[in-house]
Amino acid sequence: MSENSLYEVALTLLPGVGKLTARLLVSYCGSPKAVFSTPPGKLIKIPGLGEGTVRNMVAGFKQALLEAEGILKQAEAHNVQILFYTSADYPDRLKQIADAPALLYYRGHGHLNRRRIISIVGTRKPTPYGQSVTERLVEELKPYKAMVVSGLAYGIDIIAHRAALQAGLSTVGVMATGPETVYPALHRKYAEKMQEQGGLLTENIFGTKPDAPRFPARNRIIAGMSDCTVVVEAALKSGTLITADIAHSYDKEVMAVPGNLTSPVSEGTNHLIKTNKAAVYTSVQDLVELLNWDLEDEAQVRNAKKALLNTDDFTPDELRVVQVLQQSKEEHMDNLSWKAQVPVSQLASLLLTLEFRGIVKAMPGKRFALVG
Fold this sequence. Notes:
- The chain is built from 18 helices and twelve strands.
- The chain has helices spanning 3-13, 19-29, 32-37, 40-43, 51-59, 61-77, 92-95, 128-141, 156-167, 188-197, 214-224, 239-249, 267-274, 284-291, 293-313, 316-328, 333-340, 344-356, and strands at residues 81-84, 103-108, 117-121, 147-150, 171-174, 198-202, 228-231, 253-256, 279-280, 330-332, 360-363, 367-370.
- Strands 1-2-6-5-4-3-7-8-9 form a nine-stranded mixed beta sheet, sandwiched between helices.
- Helix 8 (128-141) links the parallel strand 3 (117-121) and strand 4.
- The longest helix has 21 residues, at 293-313.
């Protein structure tokens, strides 16, 4: 049993500590374990934490550690990996989202930070057209070796997973249940294959049932961990459109397959296109051009050269800060702290050093960017 994992799980179980507070605590204290040894007087001084929150947290330390110990034993029994947001195996794309889970439970062998990741979602009652388009879409992703992410539900979701398995692509199902429960149970045989060729991912602890409110929360993970969400078929009022709206709010790319004007399950996709919330998907070439995959290899070579120089020129902490700023262009100090996994207490002096070296420049409102 890993001591780090024990404190990571326990932190998420503390009363009043949600995903944002958990990251805030780690940012200021340095690690989940340090949170449990920081005096209440210092915890109260952390911006955003009130006296009542700190009092409830401290009172819950012992119980949280006991519960975390039980969860780790269950995780070991079910071959479940614990992925705290500071873990190298945690999905990088999801980590950039403000409301991303602080902790994920993962069953599988697939790498969650593949070069290309596409989410495919849609109605639970697809037409033959929707099934055909989904299967063709996944087959056309094969040359690009993209990971396919969906929600393991009936309809378009399971069609996408099944097609990915057949195409030899990695595929991940994001669940609204605990890590030990496959829902719907009818998809268990596909879920077992997915663990060999991808995996099952959830933010929920063991024993969590598939209650309705958990599905929109699950949808944000589907949207957040991919480069683009493709909606194949969806009714005008459906959970699928929630996923598209979430992806849109994250500034992620959204595509929709145009459908028959008389089909109820095409109303949602056609509406997304009409309101400019989604680009039109007619073939994989649309996706390639939207995501600039045709230019990606050239860019990757340039970035590799930059990364090599960075490795030689910076300390590990400095390198993480520079890499975050390379991706984000400009970042607030608090966001930079948790994205780069450098405590605020160390980040100020680190940024000052980089500023003296002409690498980083300070912007108004505690924002920072790379020079040039």
